[in-house]
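FW: tagging you since you asked about this chain on Friday. Here's the raw sequence from the shared folder, copied in full. Didn't touch anything.
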Amino acid sequence: MKMIDTAGVMAMRQDIISQNEVLRKTILPNAADGTAAVQKNFGDAMSAAFHQISDLQHAAGDLTQDYTMGKTTDIAGVMMARQKSSLGFELTLQVRNKLLKAYQDIMSMPV
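HL: got it, structure written out here
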């Protein structure tokens, strides 16, 4: 039987707490204590997320175009912007899939 490494568990716990704090600050940039309202409703939150993903895609496209035209030589910055754009798109796709699955589950429930 293995002993539980309490130091490792506590380190993982602290890492999760710090990640949650970063996410909270991203969602609530103006709230110092986290008590401000996130969004008025789900639609507003999704709309804001879609606009943010769109902005990432436009920025990646602009950087790619600048690189191909020779206006910049920062290939690392271009690749990072493209990866952020790609991850944002994948996230959007996964959220859509989860929402569609939830809708299908609700619709298949017996009344």
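FW: Residues 39-111 form one domain.
HL: agreed, and The radius of gyration is 20 Å.
FW: great, closing this out.
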